Amino acid sequence: MIEFKNVTKTYPDGTTALRGVTFSVEEGELLTVVGPSGCGKTTTMKMINRLIKPTEGSIFIHNKNIKEFNIHELRWNIGYVLQQIALFPHMTIEENIAIVPELKKWKKKDISSRIDELMNMVGLEPETYRKRKPDELSGGQQQRIGVIRALAADPDIILMDEPFSALDPISREKLQQDIRELQRKIKKTIVFVTHDMDEALALGDRVCLMKEGEIVQVDTPQNMVLEPKNEFVKEFIGNRKSPWQSAVDVIADRSGSRVITEEEFERRKFDSYGAYIMEDATGNYVSGVKQAEKVDLPVLENDLPLKKAADIFEQHGEELLPVVKGQQLIGTLSYREIVLHLKQHVSTENGVIRS
Ligand SMILES: Nc1ncnc2c1ncn2[C@@H]1O[C@H](COP(=O)(O)OP(=O)(O)O)[C@@H](O)[C@H]1O
Ligand SMILES: [Mg+2]
Question: What residues does the ABC transporter domain cover (predicted)?
Fold first, then answer.
């Protein structure tokens, strides 16, 4: 959908803001771009709607070089939300929202119903707020109008450059929820810039982490936390945890209900059709038992992260595996138990828990 190929930007004063940046945003995806101040986030955004030209490299939208688009068409099909609330102060809220639909020559009636629809979507009653001037709204409400103004003419792409950073934490959280819901409902392609890793992880389908004009890692929030590519990513992520990082012994079944002794195995052989784990008289792991037969199983060390355990289940196709500490059998684990644990802990925050 949006594709950067080897894009470099050097400003006239010699500052190189981007160095050979290559990435793409899929249709309907919300990509968050995060990184320290000055790493090139705004430069990246401004290039997408041609406010800034690359020094080298190319940018494509729908496989067409953006140089080849009519500039108005390009900009009208890209909604842009800025950090500083950029509503026109002398215009009413409805006039502010109507700007691009009017440029696109929509019918008055269609514009009006679009305004109602959008205002309702973000919880601002049209009857109450349509005729107000921006300064008669709170900061959070104004920014909400900024967001729906960017959506007004139904653009394919929405760019948001630190749209919430000037807001208080409560308005900010509310707007983050709005964006997540919007994204679910309308499936727009959104590039969302922030310098806040919490916001990036909470909102992004994928997160693009930048440093000094280069991309360090583009990944899902999960992978960013689980498999940071280097020390810089680790540091930027901080001490966030994913439920995938829990150790297997946290959820291992210690009841012994799927454990049999060698002696029981000999005795009950004829009727043990389920999957069991066999231990010896001292509680050491011996083997698995399936369909009354002994089977070799991979063992899960007690401190193994669930993510790795899930990989082992997938590779071996086993239903039940032993959890051990050294030779000692401390419990059993099934794939199902992993799934249940994750379901419990994966919240709306893309499965990343703040600690
Ligand atoms: N118009 C400009 N002229 C010269 N340097 C600029 C200009 N705009 C931005 N820069 C520099 O380019 C780098 C990236 O800036 P920017 O894209 O705004 O970063 P971010 O949005 O991540 O904070 C910074 O070093 C900044 O000082
Ligand atoms: Mg910026």
Answer: 2-237
